Amino acid sequence: MIIQFTDNATIKEKEEVKSVLASYSFRTRGVITGGASYLVTVGSEELDIRKIGNMKGVSDVHRVEDDQKLVSRKWKVDPTIVNINGTAIGGEEITIIAGPCSIENSEQVATVASFLKQNGINIMRGGVFKPRSSPYSFRGVGLEGLRSFHEICSSMGIKVITEVMDNEQIDDMYDYVDIFQVGARNSQNFTLLDAMGRLDKPVLLKRGLSGTIDELLYSAEYIFSGGNERIILCERGIRTFEKSYRNTFDINAVPVLKRKSHLPVIVDPSHGTGIRSIVREIALAGIIAGADGIMVEIHETPAKAVSDAAQTLDFVEAERLFYNARATWKFREQLSLPV
Amino acid sequence: MIIQFTDNATIKEKEEVKSVLASYSFRTRGVITGGASYLVTVGSEELDIRKIGNMKGVSDVHRVEDDQKLVSRKWKVDPTIVNINGTAIGGEEITIIAGPCSIENSEQVATVASFLKQNGINIMRGGVFKPRSSPYSFRGVGLEGLRSFHEICSSMGIKVITEVMDNEQIDDMYDYVDIFQVGARNSQNFTLLDAMGRLDKPVLLKRGLSGTIDELLYSAEYIFSGGNERIILCERGIRTFEKSYRNTFDINAVPVLKRKSHLPVIVDPSHGTGIRSIVREIALAGIIAGADGIMVEIHETPAKAVSDAAQTLDFVEAERLFYNARATWKFREQLSLPV
Amino acid sequence: MIIQFTDNATIKEKEEVKSVLASYSFRTRGVITGGASYLVTVGSEELDIRKIGNMKGVSDVHRVEDDQKLVSRKWKVDPTIVNINGTAIGGEEITIIAGPCSIENSEQVATVASFLKQNGINIMRGGVFKPRSSPYSFRGVGLEGLRSFHEICSSMGIKVITEVMDNEQIDDMYDYVDIFQVGARNSQNFTLLDAMGRLDKPVLLKRGLSGTIDELLYSAEYIFSGGNERIILCERGIRTFEKSYRNTFDINAVPVLKRKSHLPVIVDPSHGTGIRSIVREIALAGIIAGADGIMVEIHETPAKAVSDAAQTLDFVEAERLFYNARATWKFREQLSLPV
Amino acid sequence: MIIQFTDNATIKEKEEVKSVLASYSFRTRGVITGGASYLVTVGSEELDIRKIGNMKGVSDVHRVEDDQKLVSRKWKVDPTIVNINGTAIGGEEITIIAGPCSIENSEQVATVASFLKQNGINIMRGGVFKPRSSPYSFRGVGLEGLRSFHEICSSMGIKVITEVMDNEQIDDMYDYVDIFQVGARNSQNFTLLDAMGRLDKPVLLKRGLSGTIDELLYSAEYIFSGGNERIILCERGIRTFEKSYRNTFDINAVPVLKRKSHLPVIVDPSHGTGIRSIVREIALAGIIAGADGIMVEIHETPAKAVSDAAQTLDFVEAERLFYNARATWKFREQLSLPV
């Protein structure tokens, strides 16, 4: 059950509701997000919900069968639009996020940011703390690089998305990040998810390497129930037996996530394939299947990129993709496809 | 190496070429298809190919690094168009194949065939020998049903595609089948593939449940090297850890197969998802990613279908899909997408 | 439900039972094996089974919840012992099957057979029809080789197990084979399974590359319900994301299969690993986990083997394995481990 | 390359070595563990290593081809024995770790600890911070529970192993933990691995849900190269298509890890199966395949356990397992099995 309180519900009214629920052996969890105040109940739920709905301070009650309640579309039918200072994800415009795998230096940031600006794109990705399988690989330019990344971008009106790997990094990163990314390897790092729930900035949550749809939604529920409802889901390919590509992009996940959850869904065809020459096809496939946008790796000279060179588009390829992606988005509207 | 002989090459000339190749320790395999006569060589290949190219009776020589040589695009750059009595797969028109999972009776065939006819579709699918995990499940109407299936369809100008499970069935089926389908569970049934190679009818080859891209192309190579070059590849979802869907549709396979092979590629979003409500999105994703067509399960009343009800479209859903699929095909042409 | 008839039940009595069952909307399947005559029913099963148990000609009735009824341990509690002319699989002695991946020539057969004889092993494996991913790979010595393989072995009292790939091969192979092997790629070749059900020789059924426990038991049910109860299950590794080994040997399958089914279970650590140096450890692990025996690839000079060289043991390694395997079997008896 | 310095090497001597290596374009990483001081080099490595070996302050130089250098057996041939205040893991005695999935209360700890003591077991497992898919599940008794867990155990001479989920927890946990466990979901949490490298307590590192052998060894390399060489690897089952068990225990990993690395390997048959009735078989299989020990979940009344009830042994089952495990260990010594 999800109980939404009225804006002016008093503490006493809320406690009253909790107490009634407790008398029916429900466990409850209070959730206060930027937008509203809720109680989520877990329990056997054999109770006439009108009993709660009629209580003072209660604006709405929903019975939600899904285990992931707050992120479920069974509770919230309308899609969530995540706003980042005027930029919307999940709304009527396609979201395009692009940038290098790793931030390398200011020149690179400036070059890519200008390129994005010219192409009307206002969210730039770039890793500064890099999760790498080997301890001897390049592990990112760190905080210093992030500051310069953010400075250049913000001066051009471009938002910054970058990966956070650990709770200890959050405070230092906070001022220089517009969207926090939780990476595939941290998709079930629950203390990090808890911390993301306490943030007042949006979070892009990647699906784990072998994460199920249910687990991804549970991880999103961690963030939402922690108090942050500005969550973006990201399908980025899963690990299978097939070794012709780095990962197997799971296109089924796109319409399934859109149906199960009200949260926006972004696709990452760069990691989803690991193969530059098919990134465009998979990006467009993701869009036509219902995604709210794409996130792709680009670099002025992919061959010189310090990481992920094989899946990174050059600027010519990127422009073609942006053009095609927007055309596909428009085309999809005519089909009135998803959900 | 692939050596193509001229149309009027004599047996003696061919033997001469083989003998030179043998002197360089190459193993050779002679391949005669409806279209041409080839020698495929397997070996260390350190030989100036001009030496062979200049011999009498030789029209062309190619060094092909891929292990799957005859189906490789490195050998044959232009896409293969498979002709079935005037219907082309792999050409400028989208291919749409539709029909029930299982053929049930003549009324059902007539109803579906009429529906397809009205929608301008001229290939109908329908299983008469059904591969079923359990021996106690319905295993198809068999040969008698196939005859009636074919009779009704051919009277309406509709081609029949159905699955062959065993070499012993081929002769009996031959007159009533326009395209033989090799199912996912038989994707590495090599004696069946050998037999398909000896056929003069087209073969639609499904990828195995856990078949790799390489294995699918090897299986196609079996058929081609056996003498039949009219092969259609079919991506139908793979088996992964994810249990929210029956199979995980591998969208990456579409552009990868199109790049590696000259053979047409069809997608099967019905088996690729197992979920009726997302069949359309995945079908369109497959098309935009470069597929030459789609194969979908439809039924007048899916709830009454004897098999695969959960993934079968009703006629309203099917019409919407056909309409969208054709629009997406046209849209893709403007993007000039694949390869 | 499984209804076992008395040995002298008349046709009329059997028809009477069927007719009663039909009146309760049960579908039935008659099964006659070498050992007994049964009716298997499929249906909603709300019937007092005593009603059937009291009918003439009925010796026993069991309600079996498992979908795979005849191979279920819920029906037949005692383990099945498969007898092959005096050699028992599934009984009190460990079964050891060994031999080359592919039969190469008579000398090789004689060498291996003598080695086995010296080591008290009386079942020899060896492929003569080889399922190979590539059509250009060595595909076996064929029927001629099988004859000589069988002749040498039978003269030494050694039984022959070899893979059958197709129904068309069965008749020709019949006289020269003591145990028919159904390979992993044919694990769901249902027409082949049907044919195995009509045979009066034992069948070793390998699990498919991505075959589930349930599918393996269903495939066994095909054979049993076809009339052949002499079935041996074989775990040989499954396909996963891990590429450090050819396959991932699924040790869990051993105790799970032993608990679910009364059929004997053999492990194949050669294919289960693809790595010669760990074959022994995995073989012993399989035994201690409850397997009834092992099947391993051996060759006098593995480096010269025409196939599977990397996973084939030489004679020294093989002897060490045989010695260890028997010791582990004895040790397990003291622990009184499985089931 | 791994360069080990002599105990009394001066800073100047070390800098001299680094400088020579830098002149050959090697990147180097200094590693100081409790036991010794090393330089690990990453680079193209075309250098006569005697040149380095003859320098002052250098005790030993090894060329190591493996990417995971410090944990590789190619560098350190002898197995590592991890000592925890007198208790050794990886030595001549089998290691048995047991305890509940979750610590519940003092009575439970006392009951289990006494049971372990009676059975001669001196490492107890028990989660106090629980990684749970759902935010609404029980997430552990936390630090307070850990203190009491440790107090009871230490008074009985039993060591405590528990999972750490986050860098922020380390300081608070430090005094109450004898072995830090990094869980499967944190197997590639690189900042946590870095922190583990700075610890002077042993770390048990679990393989990820879909972690490869290489990734597990890389994660161990993080810890070792961070300065902590007291690492224990743990195989706990991987995620595959098979749904008859919670995870698929990867028995191949045991001998492969033992061959590739000098670190001790523990198996966790509880998570590796998720099925109480086969835990014992899989534990014994792990031992015979070369594991240095086992970690199992036990509870006085499994049905009442707050988590993982289905895979938890009761005390009778546990005693039988301990007895069998020790017998199998002794039996393995006679076979002189691994490596």
Key phrases:
18% strand, alpha/beta, four-stranded antiparallel β-sheet, 2 domains, 11 helices, TIM Barrel, homotetramer, Alpha-Beta Plaits, 339 residues
Architecture overview:
With 339 residues, chain A is an alpha/beta fold. Chain A has 2 domains: 61 residues, Alpha-Beta Plaits (2-Layer Sandwich), CATH 3.30.70.1140; 254 residues, TIM Barrel (Alpha-Beta Barrel). The first copy, chain A, is 36% helix and 18% strand. Chain A contains 11 helices and 14 strands. In chain A, strand 2 and strand 3 form a beta hairpin. The longest helix of chain A has 21 residues. Chain A starts with a strand and ends with a helix. The model of chain A has no long low-confidence stretch (mean pLDDT 94). Chains in contact: A-B, A-C, A-D, B-C, B-D, C-D. Chains A and B meet through helix 8, helix 10 and helix 11 of A and helix 8, helix 10 and helix 11 of B.
